[in-house]
Amino acid sequence: MMDVIFDMHDPEPNRRYKGLLGAQNRVPVVSADGIRWNKLGAKIPSSDTSKLIYDEVGERYIATVKHGTKYGRSAFVTFSKDFEHWTAPRLSFHTDDRDQVLAKERIRQRLADAGMQDPLFNDPDPDKGWEPPKGQRHIPTWRAEAYQLSLFPYEGVYIGLPMIYHPTGQALPARNNTVGFQDIQLMFSRDPELRQQNWVRLGDRKPFIETSRLDKGLVGNYDRQQIAPPNRPLVMGDELWFYYTGAKGRTPPYKMWPDGRVRNQQDLTPEEQADFDDGWIAICLATLRLDGFVSLDADEGGGALTTKRLTASGEQLLLNVDVHSGGTVKVEVLDDDGQPLTGFDLSNCVELTGKSVRQPVAWREGSTWKQLAGRTVRLRIQIQSASLYAFWTE
């Protein structure tokens, strides 16, 4: 198992590709071509998964590795300036008590939904009084664990994509692991040390990227049970592209029956056989508008936000905004006392309409943003029937 990045920041051509290798513990490796690799000698304590990025803001490498806590699989973070010497892994994120409550409800909903792929092995609902068989090993199920954590710097914060694993039952007959389903959630932090207490969970802990339904059949539908986040998205024009891993199950499908007996491959239906021949794991793509992680929304009743103080710079102010039918967005610039600057009040602002990731803000009567360069100001953004994603200057 290996995580790989292409590193343009290292001046040494023979270290342009970097990776973390290993099933237990992670070994930093480098390569000139991505084919022939050299170990660097370090060893990062970890179980069988990790994520790796180069952090342009901190000018460092960040790896998240997997260790256990009372909440099961959890994400630990380690840093390196040279890719050879790494800090001791420190806890960065684990699930909590609320996740455990939500996990039971999510599992119930999934098992009751005929349009979702069920895990092969499922323990009965523990809230109905079921207990594991006596004398047999039982790994905890019906809970939420942080199987992996991808994180990356984005516009002044760190975005986190925790891969939340919901184990539903023990893998039979060996009982040496569990099966279940996963989704990718969303959070952020302003803490460069990426400490556990400073992550802010977003979207009410609902999936950011979710497993696919079975409504369009089985063949070609890889991400229907297991999904894993990318190291980071790619900026492609006006979109963010997330290349993530999708698998039809934790183990190849159609190998066993739910009671643990080996399944005879000759008994597969034509659709099952086609699904089996189609393979097990694939790279999938999810797309998002630029800056589209969260938005500030207003209905036809409208609303407004006032920013903190900022120093005006650049030649223009731009907004990433979707203005819905009948809606409008306007911006005014305030002085230190919260009063609109002459020429930059709402009545002088040209209304923004339409949908675009970069809409320049303009004022009438010759007022331009670059006239404010160096001044400390605030912005008051008035929105009606619109979604605001971001604002910036350039």
Task: Please provide a written account of the structure.
The chain is mainly beta. Helices cover 6% and strands 40% of the residues. The strands form five sheets. Strands 18, 19, 20, 21, 22 and 23 form a six-stranded antiparallel beta sheet that branches. Strands 9, 10, 11, 12 and 13 form a five-stranded antiparallel beta sheet that branches. It has a four-stranded antiparallel beta sheet with strand order 1-2-3-4, with no helix packed on it. A hairpin with a 5-residue loop joins β2 (17-21) and β3 (27-31).
Q: What's the short version?
A:
The chain is mainly β. It has helices at residues 97-111, 270-277; strands at 2-6, 17-21, 27-31, 37-39, 50-55, 60-69, 72-80, 90-93, 145-154, 157-170, 178-184, 187-189, 200-201, 226-228, 234-236, 239-247, 281-289, 296-298, 303-306, 310-311, 317-334, 355-360, 376-393.
